Amino acid sequence: MEAIEVSHLVKQFGDLTAVNDISFSVPVGETFGFLGPNGAGKTTTIRMLTGISPPTSGKATIFGHDIMHETVAARQSMGIVSEISNVYTDLTGWQNMMLAAQLYRIGRSEREKNASEILKRFELYERRGDKVHGYSKGMRRRLTIAMGLVNGPRLLFLDEPTSGLDVESNLIIRDMISDLISEGVTVFLTTHNIEEANILCDRVAIIDKGHIAAIDAPERLKKTIQSVQSVEVAFLDGTSPERLDELRRLPMVNNARKEGDKFKLFTEDPTEVIGGVMAYAQTHHTRVISMTTLGPSLEDVFVKLTGLQRGGGVGAID
Amino acid sequence: MPSISLSGIEDRLSRELVAAWAIAKKDVLIYYLRPGVIVGGVLFPLFMFLAFTAGKLATPVALVPGLIGITTLFSASSIEPVSVPIERRMATFDRLLAAPISLNALVLGESLSGLIYSLLIAVVVFVAALVILMTPITNIPLIVLGILFSSLCFATLGTLFAAYPTENPGDIISMVNVVRFPLIFISGVFIPIATLPSVGQMIAYISPLTYANDLIQGGYNGKMMFHPIVDVAMLIVFILLFQLIANYLYKRFND
Predict the structure, then answer these.
(1) Chain A residues closer than 8 Å to B2 by CB
(2) Which CATH class name applies to A229-294?
(3) Angle at Cα A304 formed by Cα A300 and Cα A310, nearest 5°?
(4) A4-222 under CATH 1.20.1250.20, yes or no
(5) Considering chain B, what percentage of its residues have pLDDT values greater than 90?
(6) What is the ipTM of this complex?
(7) Stretch(es) of chain A classified as CATH 3.40.50.300
(8) Which of A62, A88, A105 to mutate to test the interface with B (most CBs of B within 10 A)?
């Protein structure tokens, strides 16, 4: 039995088809990344998989339970962490945990034991008696995830778990996700942080305009676009916009962008580009202080499949 | 198809009630146990009482049963139209929608908190009338039944209106008031139903406040239009009807 089985799922809002005939399955214990630009259909898919929103057509099962017809049974084995930190700020951290546990009908002694353990794990136990409106953004996020774990879920839906967080909260959450994965919990992760998906996920699906554009292991996806290799180079005298234009005009360079104190040059032939860069340095009386060749990243796959334009500077994807 | 057994039904019912109680407790802690809300709840019937007394519509003692009816109507249906849109805005409502409970449990939980608040305010009014005005009482169980069933009925009405998919409480409060204020005048609270024009009398029969007021009036002065069983049965019918409609609307508007 699969943890998630999705078959020809469609969601329409009037004339708009938000999710268009998607099918996939997630085996038990897998960490599955669900990537896509804003408005691609990620949240709509999660709302259907968690039974909040009924699909227009198609079917989804969670551990064999049809989410539309056996909603309660399907939800009992899942934890849901929304993109927004939806905690009750007028309640204490402890009261939030108790409420979440009672919604899953967990007995008093078990819910108190679970809540204590999880809050300690998230470094919130000392503040459990404080009202949440006094918590920082990172603490609220950690509490949101803690509430999603209080029932000991076999399947965890994580919607943008680390978006916009401080380093400490980010590390605690990433460690927790890694622990859950090693404990055999199935994780359905949506994120804008492609590197996060690359590190954590066994497989990723890339959804765009309601369709699944690709679905595979990150490394296999990267192999499909070997043409998008790159050379990363740093010069002694910095990164001027004029230099970026000059590098773009080198032979075999398809595109170039500035990344911090370096340039990233995209090419199908890194060897040729390395030679071109060295010649450029010589003719412009500068020195190359570092140069690295890189295979295609998951972000490159994402950009290629979704047809997104990279930003001129950092090339951030959102 | 999943099999249905008696123990399965018991388990499901127990799960739903635990969850409904958890939701009610959460609402009481967050929205009702605030000094401003409690003082406001008590001041509302006081001002209504003063307004009607100053207008010499009836003697102060005669006003008490109607006042208790109006108090349950307004207090029981006042908070959910505010709390649910706020929870939609904060996305905490999604947490409830995604919990392993039915919409019936969610609606019941929201209504239970309104019931608790309404009972608290009604008891304050009841005790104040007893101590200050020494209001004579004919049948206490009728008053208790009237307050209890009308509070649950109007709390469910408030939860029903809160199903309207908005994040702005004002949108819902204005809709609720369109229903609540006319009910005062067509339910025999201050104007006897027998003196209403025939259309008014027909509308009175489809107002839950008519039956709530009848029970409470019967408890105070022994004068009733209907048998108490009819009043209670009608209030139960309204509770179930509001619960079903609310359930349908929350399902419909979830998208």
Answers:
(1) 70, 73
(2) alpha beta
(3) 70
(4) no
(5) 62
(6) 0.85
(7) 4-222
(8) A105
